[in-house]
Task: inverse folding
């Protein structure tokens, strides 16, 4: 068995598929959860070299072999060499997928994950089959997979309790033989974050590669650049936003405080309605032919009727038959995960609902 030799960049391997909204060629910059690379390789052993950094929240990497996750590792600062598999049969194709497990970290400008290249010796790369569909998922902590790892009683907000592999986006995509991309941020909403912060909202950053990141390094890596929608058009965009807005609205009401500058319930509904319509307009302009599904309800049904009526009303007003609302299954004591978030079981149930709905549309 030959030992792995030099590092070969992903750019030099056309059979390797880059996943997610990324930048870079020789070195691939992974920003969002679920971003990574995928390939088929026939050798006995292969390693990936990645470069990682962080100030507070370390990146984690998941390795999948032939459709099954075989490892999940936290990365140290600097160069990391991760063995993807070793001692396997030469000549037999192995389907490998490597995913960033942790979301883009707005709070940590030092958070970094880059794929430098692959190290191998005795095999060849084969062409991947084309995905049947392309799916984009937009959301908050639920879509980021927060709470899908760890004991139910865990409360610490740490990287380890996030997982791309355990989320409904990954499950739906795999069930439909689709390639997928994720835009999500824990605690963020449509108008405000969970704490009422009007800066922490997803829509203003949707048209950038990963515009919610901070720090000079992220800017230099292209995170703030305009995203090229034409290069990757999804067949469907699945939005799951509003939970953090609802949390902030309820908290403000209980404390007698303002939300988004008002205490008036009707004004709150109007602000939320306007923001949803504005975002749907941007998503449609960016993805002219995609089915757009707004899903909601995995963590309660506060403002569900407002969101449903707004989405369905916008579809009717614009005569857009490709915009839909889908009520998602609520999390129960049997399906809750760590940090009072939906656990793996909740994601599995939701994934099945979305999968079935998409099969009817696509």
Result:
């Amino acid at each position: 068995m030959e030992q792995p030799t030099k590092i070969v960049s992903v750019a030099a391997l056309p059979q390797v598929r880059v996943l997610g909204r990324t930048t870079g060629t020789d070195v691939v910059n992974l920003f969002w959860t679920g971003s990574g690379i995928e390939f088929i390789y026939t050798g006995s052993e292969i390693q990936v070299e990645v470069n990682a950094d962080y100030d507070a929240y370390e990146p984690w990497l998941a390795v999948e072999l032939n459709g099954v996750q075989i490892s999940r590792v936290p990365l140290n600062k600097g160069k990391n060499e991760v063995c993807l598999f070793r001692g396997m049969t030469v000549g037999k194709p192995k389907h490998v997928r490597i995913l960033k497990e942790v979301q883009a970290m707005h709070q940590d400008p030092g958070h970094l994950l880059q794929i430098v290249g692959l190290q191998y010796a005795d095999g060849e790369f084969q062409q991947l089959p084309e995905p049947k569909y392309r799916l984009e998922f937009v959301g908050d902590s639920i879509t980021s997979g927060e709470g899908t790892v760890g004991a139910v009683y865990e409360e610490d907000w740490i990287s380890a309790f996030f997982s791309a592999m355990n989320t409904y986006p990954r499950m739906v995509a795999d069930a439909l033989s689709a390639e997928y991309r994720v835009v999500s941020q824990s605690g963020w909403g449509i108008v405000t974050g969970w704490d009422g912060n009007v800066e922490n909202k997803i829509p203003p950053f949707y048209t950038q590669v990963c515009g919610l990141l901070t720090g000079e390094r992220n800017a230099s890596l292209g995170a703030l650049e305009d995203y090229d929608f034409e290069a990757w058009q999804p067949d469907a965009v699945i939005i799951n936003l509003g939970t953090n807005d609802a949390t902030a609205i309820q908290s403000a009401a209980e404390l007698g405080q303002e939300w988004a500058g008002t205490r008036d319930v009707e004004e709150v509904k109007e602000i939320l309605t306007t923001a949803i319509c504005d975002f749907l307009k941007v998503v449609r302009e960016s993805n002219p032919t995609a089915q757009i599904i707004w899903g909601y309800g995995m963590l309660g049904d506060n403002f569900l009727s407002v969101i449903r009526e707004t989405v369905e009303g916008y579809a009717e007003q614009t005569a857009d038959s490709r915009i839909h609302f889908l009520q998602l299954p609520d999390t129960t004591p049997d399906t809750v995960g760590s940090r009072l978030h939906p656990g793996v079981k909740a994601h599995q149930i939701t994934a099945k609902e979305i999968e079935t709905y998409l099969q009817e549309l696509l």
Remarks:
- The first helix runs from residue 168 to 175.
- The mean pLDDT is 97.
- The two ends are 46 Å apart (CA to CA).
